[in-house]
Amino acid sequence: MAKKKKDEARVGIIGVGSHLPKKVLANEDLEKMVDTTDEWITTRTGIKERRIADEGTATSDMAKDACEEALKDANMKASDIDLIIVATITPDMPLPSTACILQSKLDAKNAVCFDISAACAGFIYGVSTAEAYIKSGLYKNALVVGSEKLSAFTDWKDRNTCVLFGDGAGAVVLAPVKRGGILSTYMGSDGTQADLLKVPAGGSKMPATKKTVEERLHYIKMSGSELFKHAVKIMADAGNKAASMLNYSCDDIDWVIPHQANIRILNAVANRMKLNSKKIYLNIRRYGNMSSASTAVALVDAVKEGRIKKGDIIVLDAFGAGLVWGAMVIEW
Ligand code: UT7
Questions:
Q1: pTM of the predicted model over 0.85
Q2: Is 2-179 a CATH 3.40.47.10 domain?
Q3: Which of 9, 25, 82, 95 is the most exposed place for a label (fewest CB within 10 A)?
Q4: DSSP-assigned letters across all residues of 139-173
């Protein structure tokens, strides 16, 4: 747990950017692909459409666009950046890291680069890692991006999963700030539940073979209803813990910017936190679940739409495969 002392220098977000592919896949399009309906998807998930990257677009390409926008917003050049962290479960390839590929595309020649694999909580894990490095004095700033091409790992014949996911990227620039910034962070993991959401093949345990491809084991497999129960409890607890570390109540929170997996999860989280659900920022209708990019893009959208004002107290809150979770209180 990381609660900041009052006189401790803080790290804050000084620039934001996002990239959403142009191609829109609507529920009506999915009706033609699998046995589903717009009505089922809308009422069970809150999703109406999602973005799908072109075949030739990789996770690093979406990350590049999001990072360039964040750098511009921060009034910085790529060569100013000390550290690049890419949060992703859909890397360009197993090696090298997507962060190194991104470094080359950005021409951020002075940065140290690595990826973080923490699924839907990846953006919060990445921001927290960057914060720790900056506070240690090792690096003076960082670029953190959640970028995912989930469409490449989605089984377009499986109605249980293919209606849920989308592609996109959200990025932030982090640096020491004189006011506001990250106030508290609470993170956790539970590997005993690793089987609930996974891509079974393609790693060292089950390398790619003709059989793994035929059995569609390179796609996302999910135990949806079990995850649902964990998600509600864990996201509510994480949000409450990060806020209570500061002795904040729900009244002190202006916005919760959550991972967007399911609108019913988010309504139940608000209920459990005893939080007015109008304080939960939602963009799931437009983009679906973009794993690590979800919380990042939600933050960027909320800023761009003018919802978040200077001095607002916001709580990033995410949960995902691992299981992993994290909540972070930021004064904007
Ligand atoms: O990103 C981080 C982690 N992800 C999550 O936390 C996701 C958590 N889970 C969920 O969001 C929900 O569990 C889902 C949206 C995935 C599924 O909703 P659900 O209310 O839990 O439905 P279910 O899996 O219990 O399925 C209910 C029924 C089943 O039919 P039967 O067996 O009752 O006849 C499914 O086969 O709905 C059926 N179904 C569908 N029907 C139409 C499942 N997917 C579809 C579909 N269209 N796309």
A1: yes
A2: yes
A3: 95
A4: -S-EEEEEEEEGGGG--TT-HHHHTTB-EEEEEEE
